[in-house]
Design a protein that fits this description.
This protein is of the alpha/beta class and 259 residues long. It contains 11 helices and 10 strands. The longest helix is centred in the N-terminal third of the chain and has 19 residues. It starts with 5 loop residues before the first strand and ends in a 9-residue tail after the last helix.
Length: 259
């Protein structure tokens, strides 16, 4: 489809989705969230896409929600807006294809929530993270209260959520919100390099790892371990497992087909 508020480019099996409202610091209005939903669905459906980079144009990743829309919402509007955004972000989180957030600048509010819905977060040295919703008299609506604690622990999440404070990239890396910090000019190359490494692996194994971690976080340990054992068994039925094992024994690079 034709996108108005973001760009979608595919090169060497990597789809780059760029939120493209730099004059608004890529703030998430309803239309942008809808386009993000179409973009991740397209990436998931295309055979020529093995992984996704999500980033922002200009000096922000996504600087938050569009306050002009939020300021007029009724309680029912607010609930429906939150559910719609959560649904889109969940499609990023549950993508069987890896999604790397290249956080090039401000990732605040909905932007931090969007980054947390990705599988890996790489940050520019200039990136800033935060959930400042309490300063507007609201709570996060797109998953911030749930994913932040899962990533950084309850205590640190409570501090960030209750104070609304903004943290820089090194601090985000220290607490586990960002996986790594890179110079701004090297951020996209680092994201591409990571995805090249990931998509060279068995695609079914990658997808099952993503699903096992995503689903397993919500399960008791015993059930999570059973899920892992089931997926371990599923892999044994694939051509890719046989190819990977034989390639290891032959001391050569495997050629995976996704079967």
């Amino acid at each position: 489809m034709a996108y108005q508020l973001l760009t979608f480019d595919v090169t060497d099996r990597i789809a780059t989705i760029t939120v493209n409202r730099p004059d608004k610091l890529n703030a998430l209005n309803d239309a942008t969230i809808a386009e993000l939903g179409h973009a991740i669905d397209e990436a998931r459906a295309r055979d020529d896409v093995g992984g996704v980079i999500l980033t922002g144009a200009g000096r922000a990743f996504v600087a938050g929600a569009d306050i002009s829309e939020l300021s007029a919402q009724s309680p029912l509007d607010a609930r429906e807006r939150a559910l719609a955004g959560q649904t889109v972000f969940r499609r990023f989180e549950t993508s069987p294809k890896p999604v790397v957030a290249a956080v090039n600048g401000f990732a605040l509010g909905g932007g931090c929530e969007l980054a947390m819905a990705c599988h890996v977060r790489l940050a520019s040295e200039h990136a800033k993270f935060g959930q400042p919703e309490v300063k507007l008299g609201i709570v996060p609506g797109y998953g911030g209260t749930q994913r932040l604690a899962r990533l950084v622990g309850k205590g640190r999440a409570m501090q960030l959520l209750l104070t609304g404070e903004m943290i820089d990239a090194p601090e985000a890396h220290r607490i586990g919100l960002a996986n790594a910090v890179h110079p701004a000019g090297e951020l996209l190359d680092a994201a591409r390099k990571m995805l090249v490494t990931i998509i060279a692996q068995g695609p079914q194994a990658v997808a099952l790892c993503i699903d096992a971690v995503t689903r397993g976080l919500d399960l008791p340990l015993e059930e999570g371990l059973l899920l892992e054992a089931n997926y371990f068994g599923l892999c044994a039925a694939t051509t890719d497992m046989r190819e990977g094992m034989q390639a290891f024994l032959d001391k050569r690079a495997p050629v995976f087909t996704g079967r």
